[in-house]
Design a protein that fits this description.
Helices cover 36% and strands 16% of the residues. The protein is an alpha/beta fold and 360 residues long. Strands 2-8-7-6-5-3-4 form a seven-stranded mixed beta sheet. The protein has a four-stranded antiparallel beta sheet with strand order 9-10-13-12, covered by helices on one side. The longest helix has 18 residues, at 70-87. It is globular. Pyridoxal-5'-phosphate is lined by residues 69-71, 102, 104, 149, 153, 176, 178-179, 199, 201.
């Protein structure tokens, strides 16, 4: 099979799988215990934490919470802001976001509307928005939070987060960096947000572990209460260790991804009626999102699935009147040239036969 849906989830790197087994079989004590056995996991956790701090440019003023996933991290930030609003209701009841956020952001924000929070969305043109759009919409006297992602999961388009934080003044900013971590450099200091959310399984760590970065002692009300102050619940030690190692490997391992992406896009550009969304924009190096006039994108996904080539389809922006559906191909460092060539050949065959049924 050929797996090209790495923006949905990735294979756990085999070396990291070994590390997880080591952690779970030999260093399974609770890291918060008073005894030496529990504390044995500390050096591994410290190394993982050091790596995450280093690669995401955090320092001692910042807090990294190990969560269960990006969804938990995102909801935790929104819940924290809501808690403060409910404690001290004020004229500031607005959150600025965009309609092209992941459902983990959009649905978490929608849930806040029941409590009197108003969600205001940036206008989206050509699958993105600009800092000028933000400046026009932003009223610091009314805004509690800005919640915008760094990169879009479907198109891979990178948004102008730094330009927006430069205009945000004292207003808190949260960024969902789930699709960016491990794919492009993410400097949490330079980007200027107060909170960042991400998930390990997008960069070859396992599912069930994520991160929430709270920058420079930004206010935070915990979602989970219990033994530990900011995020109660026994930490997923093996997951945290895996996430640190996975990010280190993602940053350090030379990758063929840009060359393979170019190979695929060169082929797609030659197809009559093929549109690569955001082709001229700054995009994630691993993501290609396209459609072909006259061929339904869902059909392309179905056809490829029959050839054991796994990609995904979705709407690049449900709010845009075009409502265009596309096919998303997302590569990883485990993707080979032969796999891309097989995909290209399958697409050639599909286009030749148009809607003819594939041979099983
Ligand atoms: N944000 C973005 C941009 C995503 O792509 C995803 C997952 O696809 C999430 C958040 C949610 O991640 P998780 O399901 O790991 O919580």
């Amino acid at each position: 099979m050929i797996y090209l849906d790495n923006n949905a989830s990735t294979i756990v790197d085999p070396e990291i799988a070994e590390l997880i087994t080591l952690c779970n079989s030999q260093y399974y004590g609770n890291p918060n215990s008073a005894h030496d056995f529990g504390k044995k996991s500390h050096p591994m956790l410290t190394e993982a934490s050091d790596r995450l701090y280093y690669h995401l440019n955090m320092d001692m003023r910042d807090t990294l919470l190990i969560t269960s996933c990006a969804t938990e991290s995102i909801s935790s930030v929104h819940h924290s802001v809501l808690t403060d609003y409910l404690k001290t209701p004020s004229a500031k009841n607005r959150i600025i976001s965009s309609p092209i956020e992941h459902p983990a952001v959009l649905q978490s924000l929608e849930a806040l509307e029941d409590f009197g929070i108003e969600i205001v969305y940036l206008p989206v043109r050509d699958y993105s928005y600009t800092a000028e759009d933000f400046a026009e919409l932003f009223d610091p006297d009314k805004t509690l939070l800005i919640s915008l992602s760094l990169a879009n999961s479907e198109t891979g388009i990178i948004h102008p987060l730094k330009d927006i934080t430069a205009l945000s003044g004292d207003t808190l900013v949260h960024s969902d960096i789930t699709q960016a971590v491990g794919k492009i450099p993410v400097d949490t200091e330079d980007l200027g947000a107060d909170y960042y959310s991400f998930s390990g399984h997008k960069f070859h760590a396992p599912k069930g572990v994520g991160g929430l970065i709270i920058k420079n002692k930004a206010p935070f009300n915990p979602l989970l209460h219990g033994a530990n102050s900011y995020r109660a619940g026994t930490m997923n030690t093996a997951g945290a260790v895996a996430m640190g190692a996975a990010l280190h490997k993602a940053v350090k391992t030379p990758s063929d991804i840009p060359t393979l992406k170019k190979r695929l896009e060169d082929f797609l550009s030659e197809i009559e009626g093929c549109n690569i969304f955001g082709y001229d924009k700054d995009r994630l190096p691993n993501t290609v999102y396209f459609n072909i006039q006259g061929i339904d994108s869902d059909y392309i996904v179905w056809y490829l699935n029959k050839q054991n080539i796994y990609v995904s389809s979705g709407s690049a922006c449900k709010s845009q009147s075009s409502g265009q559906n596309g096919v998303r191909i997302s590569l990883s460092r485990f993707t080979s040239e032969a796999e891309i060539d097989t995909l290209i050949n399958a697409l050639k065959e599909l286009i030749k036969n148009k809607k003819a049924k594939p041979t099983l």
